[in-house]
Amino acid sequence: GAVVSQHPSRVICKSGTSVKIECRSLDFQATTMFWYRQFPKQSLMLMATSNEGSKATYEQGVEKDKFLINHASLTLSTLTVTSAHPEDSSFYICSARETGNSNQPQHFGDGTRLSIL
Amino acid sequence: AQTVTQSQPEMSVQEAETVTLSCTYDTSENNYYLFWYKQPPSRQMILVIRQEAYKQQNATENRFSVNFQKAAKSFSLKISDSQLGDTAMYFCAFMIDTGTASKLTFGTGTRLQVTL
Questions:
Q1: Largest pairwise CA distance in chain B
Q2: A48 contacts in B (CB within 8 Å)?
Q3: Is the pLDDT of residue B2 over 90?
Q4: Which of B100, B98, B102, B106 is nearest to B75 (CA)?
Q5: Other C-beta atoms within 10 Å of A41: how many?
Q6: Contact at CB, B45 and A32, closer than 8 angstroms
């Protein structure tokens, strides 16, 4: 149980392209999902908290207009990197926590490696 | 703000031996949760073990156990009978229960290499 699916696993695209990453909780409902960014050999940096039916909460320094988050259902959150540039290249990971279990660990997707040429 | 410190960037252990990864944290809260996550080369984040701060007993999961010292704000991970598949980055993480949006704070990680 508690499976989180993240798609795509790898994206290579040209500068200026917008890229959408999906995060789905397959066997549980998740009111809240989280989006992280990880640079090579570094830790996970929380970018934003995605809230079903409401606006995402962004961490300090994260551009809201650059990283658009939509959480339209209890099982799906999307992160769109708008007008991506090479500096946006990174590993992006989502996680989800089952609704009603705020003290339970987050379950992570397998990540998306984004490469902007 | 909460901080998590992992002072060992890299460690190495021989197969079948025991290794301990250190983690310290700083918080003024009394009730919180601590986790160890493993990230193998595939980069998937895998929960290894969790500890509730209100529990005095150290958590164990098969070959993995923790030494939780609340007063010292220390949360080390012991891996017994190390296996090649244990080679990975290990992240210590801290969380306060603030409801559905409870956030994890991660340490900088320790890269563990298990050798023959």
A1: 45
A2: none
A3: no
A4: B106
A5: 10
A6: no
Residue pairs spanning A and B at CB distance below 8 A: 59
| Record: contact A57-B101, CB cut-off 8 A | yes
Segment B74-95, tens digit of pLDDT:
999 999 999 999 999 999 999 9
Residue A31 has pLDDT above 90, yes or no: no
Q: What is the pLDDT of residue A97?
A: 87
Q: Which of A108, A105, A111, A76 is nearest to B102 (CA)?
A: A105
Nearest CA in chain A to B98: A102
Cβ pair A109, A6 in contact under 8 A: yes
d(CA B105, CA B96): 9
Q: Of the candidates A41, A93, A102, which has its C-beta nearest B45's C-beta?
A: A93
Inter-residue contact A90 to A39 (CB < 8 Å): yes
C-alpha distance from B105 to closest chain A C-alpha (Å): 8
Q: Is B85 helix (H, G, I), strand (E, B) or coil?
A: helix
A81-105: b (≥16 Cβ within 10 Å) or e: beebeeebbbbbbbbbbbeeebbeb
Q: What is the DSSP letter of A59?
A: P
Q: What is the mean pLDDT of residues A21-45?
A: 93
Say whether A88 sits in a helix, a strand or coil. helix
Listed in sequence order, the residues at least 6 apart from B8 whose beta carbon sits closer than 8 Å to its beta carbon are B21, B22, B110
Q: What is the mean pLDDT of residues A96-112?
A: 85
